[in-house]
Amino acid sequence: MARLFLFLFFFLYQTTSFASYILIPMDHDNQKNHLKAYGITYWALAQNIKVQWLLNFEGGSFLLADAPHIRKECQIRGVSYQVLTDAEQQQLIQEIAAPSQNQEVVLLEKAPKIAVYTPSGKMPWDDAVTLVLTYAEIPFTPVYDTEVLRNDLVLYDWLHLHHEDFTGQYGKFFGAYRSAPWYIEQKKQAEELAQSLGYNKVSDAKLAVAHKIRDFVIGGGFMFAMCSATDSFDIALSAEGVDICEPMFDGDATSPNYQAQIDYAKTFAFKDFVLERSPTRYEFSDIDMTEQRRILPDVDYFTLMEYSAKWDPIPTMLCQNHTQLVKGFMGQTTAFNPELVKANVLVMGKNMQNNEARYIHGTKGKGMFTFFGGHDPEDYQHRVGDAPTLLDLHPNSPGYRLILNNILFPAARKKPQKT
Q1: Closest listed residue to residue 228, CA positions, set 167, 275, 310
Q2: Domain residues for 18?
Q3: How many domains does the chain have?
Q4: Structure pTM?
């Protein structure tokens, strides 16, 4: 019995002493590929391996139980990692838990099911989210009007809105591209799709889609939008029952004095905006600040806000990065006028020089949404026909990290927010 006891004691001691964890650092110096590190985390969750997200520790590092196949996957994808003993892991968690540290451990439990709202035929580089999901090897399902209107969104936890126009004005490309073959073809395809779905006008079909997306969020879904999908979505909701499309878009006249009929109570993020009436101006409203920008590209940065990891874990998660200064980039909707952002919406990223809101977050019903201004974080002034961004050249992109924070966010075990 004594020998058996000693054997068990030494067995348990050895197991405890050498049990190990994998730390995936996310700081500037210790991670070779930040973007693929998110892919490793998602891959682990998809295999029912729980991951601890160490908020504000080394850029928002990830911690998971050690296993040979996880190490191998990190090596294959070029992701830096460190191995910790059980004792080192316990000490790390204790240090993070200290009240003096603005750090927190958030448990990621399940890989979220991801849908990307994008028309068929779009190339991956037409949309930054599709691009980075493909690069990080995170699976997603493309959906569009047909799938949304038949209630397929109930199958997903997270939805990204493609660079899209929910107002039915075809992206306001009329002024510069009305004679371009691609514009003519896309307008024709949109009209045919709307009619096949039972709508007389594209604007009516897009409003119905916007309502389905709104209901998805209210019911508990997570929505992430970039570029023109941000303001055009809110504008479409606010203009329900009002015709804001000029005849070249929908074949009939606009509603008289339509600006006065806009209902800001129906929007997610924006208030008191004034719509752009000119069909030839590449702008939806005064929400966007693109034409007011007086910033040279070399000094165009926005600052991520700092939150209490223990008291406000949600915005802290969404702002995890290896730098607080993120390089700016443009789009049809580059940045938001902060005076037109509702008071209950958090501005998580600001361009201080031009007083712009770049990155905002809010709740709607049981769900949440994040709006990110700009088109492609590593293509400063993306233009029609530009070559695709090669993310192999930008594996540590801070702007793309913000997108991937939002993708992992639904995997977190929810804690009540204290403020």
Answers
A1: 167
A2: 2-108
A3: 2
A4: 0.92
